[in-house]
Each structure stands twice: as structure tokens, then as C-alpha cells.
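Weekly modeling sync, notes
Attendees: S.R. (lead), two postdocs, one rotation student

Agenda item 3: backlog of single-chain predictions. S.R. asked that every request posted to the team notebook include the full sequence so nobody has to chase files. The rotation student volunteered to paste the first one in as an example of the format we agreed on. Action items at the bottom.

Example entry:
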Amino acid sequence: MARDFKAFEKRLLGQGFGEILRCQLEHVEDGYCRVRLPYRGELSRGDDLIHGGVLAALIDKAGTAAAWSFEDIAEGARGATVAMQVNFLKGAVSDLVAQAKVVRRGSSITVIDVEVLDEQGDLVAKGLVTYKLANTPQKTSGRR
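Predicted structure, as returned to the notebook:
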């Protein structure tokens, strides 16, 4: 079954907080995704450098997309980031690219390594995302 790239991008990057970030999905395959964040002044700390919270959000978004990148994930599955570590390595005043690669995919826990690069290809931040994904549709109990 072919992946619907635009639907995947909209679902994982283009709703809610994703609308504020305005990340763009550049590539996705099982266990890997690449996400671009265009530079905008309103993402800065007030001195042109991109805010650390924005970098952390980019790492979380890219890690989440990589966790969901497998084509065998069931319709109606649910998930959430359960842990994240971020190391800030260099200030950035440019578009950023986050490359997220699944390190290990278990039955419900997925660990993803994320690197954030600036336009020159320099490493700006490194993250490790732990994501819990219930790969079965959410059941309703009938209770309210």
C-alpha cells in the first residue's frame, strides 16, 4: 500500500501546535523521516537565534513522525512521547533540518535518535525521543 505523503504530513506536522511551527516533511520511509523547519524571526529568543524550546519541539515532532512512519500501524492507533533528552550544541539563525531514525521499535515503545542540522550541515542539537505507540485502535468501554 502506497503511503499518502501529504496526509501523513498534515496529520503529524500540520495540526494544532504543528500549525504554529510550520514544519515541512521532506522524506519518510519505515523508521526514518526528515523534517524541515523554515527560519522565522518569531521563533527566535529575541536576538535572531532560534529558541531552545523550538528546537526541542522540532525534535519531538520529527521523532514522533519517525515512530509513526511504519506502514503497518493500524488505523486508530494512539501514541505519545513519554521521554525526551535534548542536547543543544550550537546556536542557529537559519532553516533547520531534523533527521529522525528509529533506533529500536518494540511492541509499544519506540526509541528515536534525532539530529538537527543548520543550512551549513552543522549539528545544532541532538535528541533522543522515547515514544509509546499503542498499535491497535482505541476501544471504547461504553462508559461515560
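Discussion: group reviewed the output briefly. Residues 140-144 have pLDDT under 50 and may be disordered.
Action items: rotation student to repeat for the remaining queue; S.R. to check formatting next week.
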